[in-house]
Design a protein that fits this description.
Blueprint: H1 17-24, E1 29-33, E2 39-40, E3 55-59, E4 63-72, E5 86-93, E6 101-103, E7 118-125, E8 131-137
Antiparallel strand pairs: 1-2, 1-3, 4-5, 4-7, 5-6, 7-8
Amino acid sequence: MTTGYKFLLPRPDLETKGWWGALRRHEMVLQRCTSCQTFRHPPQGTCPKCYSEDWEWVKMSGRGTIYSFIVVWQSVLPQWRRDTPYNVVQVTPEEAPNIRITGNVIDVDHSALKIGMPVEAVFDDVTPEDTILRWRLRG
């Protein structure tokens, strides 16, 4: 495992390795039930709508809108204190209005964030093996 990145890194499992692998390729995908066509996130083995275990990965555009956000000014985690303030957002992808993906918006004045703002995916290669999904405002 590569060191040097001070925050939590993903630990892909059977259901999430497709998500993390796509991010590594700088693609955003969502899991979709092949029985009822319902998107779901985070990835899981069984559809919460129809209980089917059949699913596929579907490539997304990487565009979405901010559904919710918070700006963290103080952190209880010592390794994150130097990076405050930082934002945490929930984004609704264009193609899947029932989904929320958590991340953060980069290169933004936190006071400028508003619910409904359009964003696009940014792929941050934080280690040679790990890529984190972040967001940038679309203008």
